[in-house]
């Protein structure tokens, strides 16, 4: 009888601890929402859908760069050059009604640890998966900022 009672107690403890783990609130939920909003405003809409260079400059840290391989070296594309190019494109040939200017996105993952975060976001254009981007963010006194990007073009 004692043996059965121990088994039942063990099952109850395991079930309770499993339930507690499942119901544990996401401590980083608020940070994830802030990060999503920043990326939607500064990146998805700033760099792609609305071509809003000012939103880019607010959401990206001034030392931000896109890092990509160039042979065995690393190529760096700074935010100033990118945002200036976005502003120029909007001034020259941007038509918001043109479907090629409509980018869809999917947040594949958002990982937050303290004041650091990593976001994997997939961008689609005209129904095709074009980019998988990895955005690194840091939280400063003024809030979250995007500090680096590496990507894969499909």
TrEMBL record:
Coiled coil spans: none
Keyword Signal on entry: yes
InterPro entries: FrzH/put_lumazine-bd, NTF2-like_dom_sf
Gene3D superfamilies registered for this protein in UniProt: 3.10.450.50
Keyword Signal: yes
Signal peptide start-end: 1-20
Pfam families named among the record's database cross-references: Lumazine_bd_2 (PF12893)
Protein name: DUF4440 domain-containing protein
């Amino acid at each position: 009888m004692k043996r059965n009672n121990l088994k039942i107690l063990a099952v109850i403890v395991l079930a309770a601890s499993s339930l507690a783990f499942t119901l544990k609130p996401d401590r980083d939920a608020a940070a994830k929402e802030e990060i999503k909003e920043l990326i939607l405003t500064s990146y998805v809409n700033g760099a792609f859908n609305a071509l809003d260079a000012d939103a880019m400059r607010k959401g990206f840290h001034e030392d931000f760069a896109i890092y990509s391989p160039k042979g065995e070296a690393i190529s760096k594309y700074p935010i100033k050059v990118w945002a200036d190019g976005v502003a120029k494109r909007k001034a020259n040939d941007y038509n918001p009604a043109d479907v090629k200017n409509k980018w869809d996105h999917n947040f594949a993952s958002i990982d937050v640890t303290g004041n650091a975060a990593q976001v994997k976001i997939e961008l689609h254009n005209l129904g095709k998966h074009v980019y998988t981007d990895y955005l690194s963010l840091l939280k400063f006194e003024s809030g979250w900022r995007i500090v680096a990007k590496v990507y894969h073009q499909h």
